């Protein structure tokens, strides 16, 4: 534990969307690695609860309520982080939303909202944070998905946003190389959700996520630990879960075959793609 706590000692980590789910698990993992943590989200009750839980573990943590789909919210969030902890070393752009509905039935406003949350929110967060990250030669972590490797049915907006993150990561990696800022992207596979996890349906109503088979899922803690390694080793990318690695290789070798695999799973396991 002593060695682990030295990984991010005297460093500050900002994690968007960290009141629950993967973001909350990442906050704990980075905190246990020695970092000071700034939580973020729009639900103050969740943030306060998570903050209290992490402080009870002896971790240094605070929170800031801000909507990262609004640039002013991102700017305020970064300013609050630097004011509170004095520096910014790692940004985990985790906040996003998802939908489970076929494209033809999806309200265009919901499509826009989900798309914005998956590309504009992380882009705005990155843009607002770059001056602080350049000072520390820090890391920007983008949270991708299997849907960013190949488009998934009933998740068109989510898939489009996650695919766009790859292009954003590639562009920023080249632009920021001279400044010493590391840009990494994690392609997250099917992950065990919080029981209260919800997604948008075609009309924009929040509905529960359908349960998936346990063997297809990874834990939030596994994802969080992978993010700590991604930042510590300053890797370009990490593809998580055995399914994700198979899909990565298959899509690179034969996109047609990868698409056939998705088509097969959509027919045989439709519950995986339902709300």
CATH architecture: 3-Layer(aba) Sandwich
Number of domains: 1
Major sheet: arrangement of strands? 3-2-1-4-5-6-9
- Taken as a percent bin, the fraction of beta residues is 15-25%
For the report, how would you describe the main beta sheet?
7 strands, parallel
Note the gap between the termini.
Answer: 39 Å
Order of helices and strands: HEHEHEHEHEHEEEHEHH
The CATH class designation is: Alpha Beta
> What does the average pLDDT come to?
91
Per CATH, the superfamily is: NAD(P)-binding Rossmann-like Domain
List unreliable stretches of 5+ residues: none
Which of globular, elongated, flat, extended, rod-shaped describes the shape?
globular
How many H/I helical runs?
A: 9
CATH fold naming: Rossmann fold
Task: Offer a concise description of the structure.
This protein has 275 residues and is an alpha/beta fold. The protein contains 9 helices and 9 strands.
């Amino acid at each position: 534990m002593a060695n682990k706590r030295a990984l991010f000692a005297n460093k500050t980590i900002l994690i968007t969307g960290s009141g629950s789910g993967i973001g909350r698990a990442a906050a704990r993992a980075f905190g246990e690695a020695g970092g000071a943590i700034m939580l973020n989200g729009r639900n103050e009750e969740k943030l306060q609860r998570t903050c209290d839980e992490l402080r009870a573990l002896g971790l240094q943590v605070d929170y800031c309520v801000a909507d990262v789909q609004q640039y002013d919210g991102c700017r305020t969030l970064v300013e609050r982080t630097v004011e509170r902890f004095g520096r910014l070393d790692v940004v985990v752009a985790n906040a996003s939303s998802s939908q489970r509905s076929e494209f033809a039935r999806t309200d265009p406003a919901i499509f826009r909202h989900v798309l914005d949350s998956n590309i504009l929110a992380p882009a705005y967060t990155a843009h607002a944070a770059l001056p602080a990250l350049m000072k520390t030669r820090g890391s920007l972590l983008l949270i991708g998905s299997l849907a960013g490797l190949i488009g998934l049915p009933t998740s068109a907006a989510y898939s489009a946003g996650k695919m766009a993150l790859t292009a954003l990561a590639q562009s920023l990696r080249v632009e920021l190389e001279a400044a010493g800022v590391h840009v990494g992207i994690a392609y997250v596979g099917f992950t065990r959700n919080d029981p209260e996890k919800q997604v948008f349906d075609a009309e924009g109503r929040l509905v529960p996520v359908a349960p998936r088979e346990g063997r297809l899922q990874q834990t939030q803690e596994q994802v969080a630990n992978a993010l700590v390694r991604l930042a510590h080793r300053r890797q370009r990318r990490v593809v998580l879960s055995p399914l994700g690695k198979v899909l990565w290789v298959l899509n690179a070798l034969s996109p047609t075959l990868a698409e056939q695999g998705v088509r097969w799973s959509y027919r045989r396991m439709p519950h995986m793609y339902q709300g």
